[in-house]
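Blackboard transcription, Thursday session:
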Amino acid sequence: MPGLKPETRDKLKGVSTATLCTALYKRGLRNQFIQDVHPLNPNGSPMVGEAFTLRYIPAREDLNPISVFQDRNHPQRKGIEDCPPGAVFVIDSRKDARAASAGSILVTRLMKRGVAGIVTDGGFRDAPEIARLAIPAYHHRPSAPTNITLHQAIDVNVPIGCGDAPVFPGDIIVGDGEGVVVIPAHLADEIAAEGFEMTAFEDFVAEEVMKGRSILGLYPATDPQTNVDFLAWRKNNSR
Amino acid sequence: MPGLKPETRDKLKGVSTATLCTALYKRGLRNQFIQDVHPLNPNGSPMVGEAFTLRYIPAREDLNPISVFQDRNHPQRKGIEDCPPGAVFVIDSRKDARAASAGSILVTRLMKRGVAGIVTDGGFRDAPEIARLAIPAYHHRPSAPTNITLHQAIDVNVPIGCGDAPVFPGDIIVGDGEGVVVIPAHLADEIAAEGFEMTAFEDFVAEEVMKGRSILGLYPATDPQTNVDFLAWRKNNSR
Amino acid sequence: MPGLKPETRDKLKGVSTATLCTALYKRGLRNQFIQDVHPLNPNGSPMVGEAFTLRYIPAREDLNPISVFQDRNHPQRKGIEDCPPGAVFVIDSRKDARAASAGSILVTRLMKRGVAGIVTDGGFRDAPEIARLAIPAYHHRPSAPTNITLHQAIDVNVPIGCGDAPVFPGDIIVGDGEGVVVIPAHLADEIAAEGFEMTAFEDFVAEEVMKGRSILGLYPATDPQTNVDFLAWRKNNSR
Amino acid sequence: MPGLKPETRDKLKGVSTATLCTALYKRGLRNQFIQDVHPLNPNGSPMVGEAFTLRYIPAREDLNPISVFQDRNHPQRKGIEDCPPGAVFVIDSRKDARAASAGSILVTRLMKRGVAGIVTDGGFRDAPEIARLAIPAYHHRPSAPTNITLHQAIDVNVPIGCGDAPVFPGDIIVGDGEGVVVIPAHLADEIAAEGFEMTAFEDFVAEEVMKGRSILGLYPATDPQTNVDFLAWRKNNSR
Amino acid sequence: MPGLKPETRDKLKGVSTATLCTALYKRGLRNQFIQDVHPLNPNGSPMVGEAFTLRYIPAREDLNPISVFQDRNHPQRKGIEDCPPGAVFVIDSRKDARAASAGSILVTRLMKRGVAGIVTDGGFRDAPEIARLAIPAYHHRPSAPTNITLHQAIDVNVPIGCGDAPVFPGDIIVGDGEGVVVIPAHLADEIAAEGFEMTAFEDFVAEEVMKGRSILGLYPATDPQTNVDFLAWRKNNSR
Amino acid sequence: MPGLKPETRDKLKGVSTATLCTALYKRGLRNQFIQDVHPLNPNGSPMVGEAFTLRYIPAREDLNPISVFQDRNHPQRKGIEDCPPGAVFVIDSRKDARAASAGSILVTRLMKRGVAGIVTDGGFRDAPEIARLAIPAYHHRPSAPTNITLHQAIDVNVPIGCGDAPVFPGDIIVGDGEGVVVIPAHLADEIAAEGFEMTAFEDFVAEEVMKGRSILGLYPATDPQTNVDFLAWRKNNSR
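(Written on the board underneath:)
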């Protein structure tokens, strides 16, 4: 993957997942929102980065004694050390939150390594601690049991499903207070540009509606006056 | 609908959904609590108003291009403009939160129009923004994809199901930090009156229990002394 | 039940449910975490106590008029008065949160009686009030309908299931900001001791990782230097 | 329990669970149908008998080695030997079919002992064999894992929930090709009598409708001619 | 609705729902298969007809005494008498099979009136009897409780959702041993024509594969020889 | 993989999945039964073979036009041609049966190629046709939509989850009328041998129970006479 351009990363930090979903919808992509994952710290900063993935399968008991983590090449531990700075670590936990996908020590390690965030469609253990870390983290619900209770890490950086969304390594993962969206890598620049413009318009609309204006003709801008007003607003607000 | 009496509205603002459910239970109504919806702002003010409804069906792709909102008569947009001030906008999203029921701009518009609140058994997009608005809003979980991804607005102000509860236009919708209850319109006055009285008694009981009194004989008041004490408490507390 | 030793109780207050699950996992116990229950007050104090149980079955309408609570021997009310101080009141609600398991008045009574906490795999009514009480409480989600809408209290202090975990009277129940774990009574002392030691090591590891150290060799401590460092850390930190 | 009268048993063998549900509905009982259980042999004979119950809780691994069945007092094995002839063995498996509730050998033993049927809201193992036995059996789906994988038998003949229906020992359990209904013991005679009469009327209606008659006025019999015709039909058909 | 052309109806009787789903997929329609409904008689004849719909909402107890059916204008009963011959009666039961959508008497009446079939995303009561009738019927699972236990009929012939598929009155409903698909009315002729052609090709392919031919190049027909062989096959088989 | 020994294959054809689950349970393996999959032809022959796997992820619309199957290297099509004779084709469909995992033409091709069976934790299209083929097939439920509606084939013969069970390439897959079990490759011989012996004993027990003998002391064989009788039975029955 050639990587995410810094200006695209910056733009995406200012665009909501809702707006990104609409831009994707216009291109026929309807399933890019990771379903039913939630930020551990709803007031955290936005998350943007290339996907680096971990795949779990159901754990077989004989292959998952507690001693398994003594192997330095265990995919979960190796993935934590190999995930590039600036990337988002995305875990396919088969939407099973009955055991943890990871805990606070591993998430802290990712944070220290400069990773941009972590997402699982299962649950994290030590969730209260993770919520206090300065790294965006998303899961379905807290889950104390160690991951090997139900999950066996099997592959690193292959295409996965996460929360019913397809995630390919290198896809751009964006998270905000609402949830997480997956942008196909080749669309990142244009989606970021379009989302940036849409955000300006939506901010204008939000102000107008707050002033008491009807949504009819304004949103979408079917009344020509709307675009006139929007251009004036952009000028006034330097956007 | 003749509308909700101001004194009934006021009384209902001071009665919890739990107490209202008990008053309904006494009348044989067991399914009036909208299941599994949650306030976006748990510390918001209580919500009371007549139901004004919107019904979604599953979206058919050819009928739901992004341009559909350019139609000023689109039921979702029209519903937003037609919902009376003081009413509660209730959406039947078939308990499907995989795509949004509405977003912050429409909810802001409802707020500015004086609508008393909004409820969906699906999810809202822009949930963090909606949580900061001064209008009560209830949903299942945040959901960024635009509503037309999965929902097609088809009808305004018809009887619907919401969270497995029946909702008829004009029913009285009450929400608090716990959730939302549906009071059949013809019962609103008597339920409000009974709930008001029950609340006084429960407040008395809560104080007594906090002082260390046993619940036996007190709640319910099978010990005659309980009613004696309650009457004294009402006098002392002007209730 | 001989009861929980004070020193075991104290140790368990300082060990997370995640760590306890790992200690149980080492002994072949994989299903002791109560699935999908959440603290009403995520910032509350930890909960430790012996299990005292209540079992619900589905309510039959003719056996559950509102007058049923006038019976002082109704199992729910009796259970509330009989639960020993220091114990945790655990309710088998068959994972059904469509009606309440209990409300704020009963939970207040438990608190005043010195009970250490309350857990249901259903929901509480008056959840916002319960969240403000100084007693740990865990449920699946708020639920306003009175318990007899769907639940009939049938047995006190028998073995139950709660959130897919087995709970025997006298088992040690521990809750933190993440959830609730069930420790078989006969293992409480050794699990507490081991958990106490594990917590010291994990605190050391967390500090090291926060300083930038890799998890490889550190967690688990396959590098001999790790144990050397840990012993020094314990001495320095008097642990 | 005084037991089921032979004439009541006989009548109930000729009444469908659908008709019985309607008779119960008229008395305010809405939750007596055991949800989502199916006959292993859809063409088997009807099942009628008093409930004899077994209660499972989630299995704790240390209490459930394979050797547990060597205990002759193990509740599952004891229940199988103690269930009275003519009764129906009803199992509360917490709607969890991931492991079996029982297998063909135990069901065969029940059959040989004269038991009238067996119901679980989980699953049976050896389901193809059970389907060939001359005893009615109902479950959710086939499930090969031995019961102790997830279930621990804990109590015999206590009130239970089965498929979200309340089941008290001695209640009358009736099964047909559609499913299973629970009749409270004290209502058995009157429900049987009413169901017997309703069945005659419905058979008459079915014949009329098959001849081409409209349901309006016929079902229910709001047209006086309907009752005239029904009386003639009864005479002609000796019913 | 102008109605379904007889030749289109005939063609559709010979095309599988799987093939129709593929033809719809090519036009961007991905959600036209009614999810999780099953034929009561898997060996019955295919079902084709225009949709005539019934919409249920959750039942409110005070509006649904057993006497409600005495009203000849009750939407369920009226719908049964008004559904045109040749149409398919499609019921929106909100995917809730805990109570019945209809029973054998009403389904018999539909059959006698010449209706082409019946579909619900809930369940039928008297399912064993319905399975023996000469009318195709599809549901989720058998359900003995009378519909008013949980369902209130509210509307006839409005757009509905059924098994997560959108159904508009007049859409063409096709059922086979696999399930039920919804064809938008305006596409019926072209989908029937294309499905007819696809069926011929798939029958050819099935024969070839049964003879041992690889699917590569054959299905889809990327090898030019495939089309040569297919044309010869059509000639030989007069298709 | 060295492959499955012919004598092991033969033995496994005579052992039920229930018995195999018990043998696995004795070795601490509790999750080897593929949950909630069912044979399309319940009366078909038993299925035994080494696992050959296919992994799906959620489909991204732009990568899954109908033309995708024109690629001869498409993993689904390639997997069908590469699966070895005697193996079982096991598909990870993420337990999502809303679109098909495969259809009758591909299953026919597998059959003609000598493959021993096919399993998905999703659904098959053309299910009625597949049910008539002479190859064992297991799925959750019929599903007409083409697989690319929701599934994208991504990998062949990697470890997967199927119905919450771990499946490694080369594991031994056994299916009967009840369902499907996964035997780790290295245990196949000993599990087959033990299952063969257990089957003899269970057949003896079944006969005894059918004659009226109690299960106490017989099953398990805690009464010494049981083993005496069993040895005699083996001799008499040449087993």
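Lecturer's comment: The first strand of chain A starts at residue 38 and ends at 39.
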